[in-house]
TrEMBL record:
Signal peptide: none annotated. InterPro entries: AminoAcid_Transporter (IPR050598). Keywords: Membrane, Transmembrane, Transmembrane helix. The keyword Cell membrane does not apply. One of its GO terms (biological process) is D-alanine transmembrane transport. GO terms for molecular function: L-amino acid transmembrane transporter activity; neutral L-amino acid transmembrane transporter activity. Coiled coil: none annotated. The chain crosses the membrane at residues 16-39, 51-73, 79-98. The keyword Transferase does not apply. This is AAA1 protein.
Length: 133
């Protein structure tokens, strides 16, 4: 969010849309690759929806074309998009990977999470019985 706010203040909306669309297509392709890998490595697990593998493979062919064309036509925009994605790596290591955090860091993360949930109206309602216990 912070990177998006900075980009909105510095650049124009067209550039921001290009950054986000490149990131979205990159994530969609990685998701489809994950689907194919899981279908290949774990063919027996339960899947509520199962499609023919020709559909995701065809999608990946178009995805690769769009991604390569984007990288060729606008390499700076794609590079900035990748940098935006990589800003999440330190957040992952600080918030998820680091298991033995000090209590003050845990309290900061919990309060930030609570604040973000309230800001975005995504706080789950709590049961009355859970509050009494």
């Amino acid at each position: 969010c912070l990177a998006t706010l900075i980009i909105m203040l510095v650049g124009d909306t067209y550039t921001l849309i290009n950054y986000v669309s490149f990131i979205n297509y990159l994530c969609y392709g990685v998701t489809i690759i994950g689907l194919i890998v899981l279908r290949w490595r774990k063919p027996k697990i339960f899947r509520p929806i199962k499609v023919n593998l020709l559909i995701p493979i065809t999608y990946l062919a178009f995805w690769a074309f769009l991604l390569i064309f984007s990288l060729y036509s606008e390499p700076v925009v794609c590079g900035v998009g990748l940098i935006i994605i990589l800003t999440g790596v330190p957040v992952f290591f600080l918030g998820v990977y680091w298991r033995n955090k000090p209590k003050s860091v845990n309290r900061l993360i919990e309060s930030t999470t609570c604040w973000g949930q309230k800001l975005c109206f995504v706080v789950y309602p709590q049961c009355a019985g859970a509050e009494e216990e």
